[in-house]
């Protein structure tokens, strides 16, 4: 085994900013230049008004938890830790994002909870790289993993 | 467009459950044979076939009919997630209504993988990242009902208790034991607030319906008044198209709502006219959401609907007298047509201990991945 700094790779390209990005942790949403609505993940065509030529907007540093649950059993293919929180996060930009939550305790999670985005390693892949994914965690300290 | 009536000439079903000694083709053949026998037709007795299935693979319907010596007619295999059977029925009914066909065989079958359904729907990275667990999405929908429709954990449990009580009387159901509130609430927590007994099991089974341009020569006349399939409009983060995001507020109508609206209009009936309903109850919360989306109660009234016992056998509008998917299990391609078989029996007055007395107007509903929703209205 070779010991050395692990490379970090995103679980999928184009979903979120990487750790060295000066903008900080952000989701990379599509923003329609015609109707101004956001969609995620970003695509060229707006799903709401069908206009082409959407731009990419780095959004979602913070949000508010709308709905949540906890996943206790490993879904097929999932490579992160169990249990994990899962929910819908409302972003100030008008987007409601489906997200893993970096908090699974049901006595901490509640509707209306202020949350913030983290981009963090989820698992180590077969090549030895740390694979980054995104999750929302409670703001202000309640924030244990 | 002028159309002509569509009648049900025969129905057949293979029980829903687990059948390790049979392959999916055999399941389908059992249901097809039963439907054709009931209609009194053999080879040459239908001029097109539509087969709903999701996991069966290439030429699924061709294998079923080929093995029975019934191929030669056009055979179309249809995939529309949980609504696959409803999609096949919509195509078959349209072929007759338009005058293109005289008799159409519609069938569906499935042999589901065990456990949480693995689907080619998600790319591998979505599964690795934890976006694939269907029960988690169900749980979020249930939690929204708790926040916005006055639904409690007890209401969720009561739906499961009701459907399992109904299933006791259905020889084609997988689970035929009554469940108590304590058993359902105390079962293993899968995704809060949903316990194991509030979720249906993917399983195996088949169902078939022979549609005809002419009413049956004997017995009650059962007519397909509407068979509608709709897909989602983007915008809802909780839709069955399972997006990674939606918009806050201003949600578009769900595919169930748009399909129901169209079906009521085509059939010329309203929810108040319905006598019996079979609807999608993949989980207890989905039943309550389906009740709301089909207009069986006002939006936000799901909790009250359950509390008032409206959907019980003794209630105003029995829901899932077959036991629903919660007690039958869900073989995707067969589930919608299983509902049509049950509702046909209900309208004939032939549903034995599950009979809703005097039923004359029935509605069947499925919704699932795609998103797809089907709504079928039958009358006697």
Task: Write up what this structure looks like.
The complex is a heterodimer of chains A (145) and B (380). With 145 residues, chain A is an all-beta fold. Chain A has two domains: 24-59; 60-139. Chain A contains no helices and nine strands. A six-stranded mixed beta sheet of chain A has the order 1-9-8-5-6-7, with no helix packed on it. In chain A, strands 3-2-4 form a three-stranded antiparallel beta sheet, with no helix packed on it. Chain A starts with 7 loop residues before the first strand and ends in a 7-residue tail after the last strand. The model of chain A has no long low-confidence stretch (mean pLDDT 93). Chain B is α/β, with parallel strands linked by helices and 380 residues long. Chain B has one domain: Peroxisomal Thiolase, Chain A, domain 1, CATH 3.40.47.10. Chain B has a nine-stranded mixed beta sheet, sandwiched between helices. In chain B, helix 3 packs across helix 12 and helix 6 crosses helix 9. The interface between A and B is large, with 41 and 37 residues.
Mean residue pLDDT of chain A: 93
Oligomer: heterodimer
Order of helices and strands of chain B: EHEHEHEHHHHEEEEEHEHHHHEE
Main sheet summary of chain B = 9 strands, mixed
Helix content of chain B: 25-40%
Number of strands of chain B: 12
Estimate the helix proportion of chain A, in percent.
Answer: under 10%
Strand order of the largest sheet of chain B: 3-2-4-7-1-8-12-11-10
Query: What percentage of amino acids of chain B are in beta strands?
Result: 15-25%
Order of helices and strands of chain A: EEEEEEEEE
Mean pLDDT of chain B: 96
Rg estimate of chain B, integer Å: 19 Å
Low-pLDDT stretches of chain A are none
In terms of structural class, how would the helical and strand content of chain B be classed? alpha/beta
């Amino acid at each position: 085994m070779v010991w050395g700094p692990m490379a970090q790779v995103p679980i999928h390209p184009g979903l979120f900013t990487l750790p060295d990005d000066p903008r900080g942790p952000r989701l990379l949403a599509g923003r329609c230049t015609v109707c101004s609505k956001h969609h995620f993940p970003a695509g060229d065509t707006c799903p709401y008004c069908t206009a082409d030529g959407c731009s990419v907007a780095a959004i979602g540093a913070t949000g508010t938890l709308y709905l949540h649950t906890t996943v206790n059993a490993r879904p097929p293919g999932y490579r992160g830790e169990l249990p994990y929180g899962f929910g819908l996060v409302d972003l100030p930009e008008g987007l409601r994002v489906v997200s893993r939550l970096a908090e699974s305790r049901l006595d901490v999670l509640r509707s209306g909870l202020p949350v913030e985005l983290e981009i963090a390693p989820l698992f180590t892949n077969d090549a030895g790289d740390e694979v980054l994914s995104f999750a929302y965690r409670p703001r202000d300290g309640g924030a244990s993993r | 467009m002028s159309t002509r009536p569509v009648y049900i000439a025969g129905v057949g079903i293979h029980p829903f459950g687990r059948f390790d000694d049979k392959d999916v083709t055999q399941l389908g053949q059992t249901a097809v044979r039963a439907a054709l026998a009931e209609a009194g037709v053999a080879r040459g007795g239908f001029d097109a076939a539509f087969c709903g299935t999701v996991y069966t693979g290439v030429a699924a319907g061709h294998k079923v009919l080929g093995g029975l010596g019934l191929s030669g007619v056009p055979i179309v295999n249809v995939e529309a997630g949980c609504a696959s059977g409803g999609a096949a029925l919509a195509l078959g009914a349209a072929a007759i209504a338009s005058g293109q066909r005289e008799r159409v065989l519609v069938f569906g079958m499935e042999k589901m993988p065990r456990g949480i359904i693995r689907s080619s729907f998600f790319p591998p990275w979505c599964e690795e990242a934890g976006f694939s667990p269907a029960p988690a999405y169900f749980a979020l929908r249930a939690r929204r009902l708790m926040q916005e429709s006055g639904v409690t954990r007890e209401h969720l449990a009561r739906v499961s208790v009701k459907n399992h009580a109904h299933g006791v009387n259905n020889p084609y159901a997988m689970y035929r034991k009554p469940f108590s509130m304590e058993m359902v609430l105390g079962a293993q927590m899968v995704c809060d607030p949903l316990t194991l007994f509030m979720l249906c099991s993917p399983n195996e089974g088949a169902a078939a319906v022979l549609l005809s341009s002419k009413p049956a020569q004997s017995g009650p006349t059962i007519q397909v008044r509407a068979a509608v399939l709709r897909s989602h409009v983007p915008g809802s983060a909780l839709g069955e198209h399972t997006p990674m995001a939606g918009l806050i507020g201003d949600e578009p109508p769900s595919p169930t709502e748009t399909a129901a609206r169209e079906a009521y209009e085509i059939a010329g009936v309203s929810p108040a006219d319905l006598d019996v309903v079979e609807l999608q109850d993949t989980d207890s919360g989905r039943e309550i959401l389906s009740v709301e989306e089909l207009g069986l109660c006002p939006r936000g009234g799901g909790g009250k609907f359950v509390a008032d016992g409206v959907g019980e056998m003794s209630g105003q509008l029995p829901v899932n007298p077959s036991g629903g998917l919660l007690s039958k299990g869900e073989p995707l391609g067969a589930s919608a047509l299983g509902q049509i078989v049950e509702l046909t029996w209900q309208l004939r007055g032939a549903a034995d201990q599950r009979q809703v007395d005097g039923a004359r107007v029935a509605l069947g509903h499925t919704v699932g991945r795609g998103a797809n929703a089907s709504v079928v209205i039958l009358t006697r």
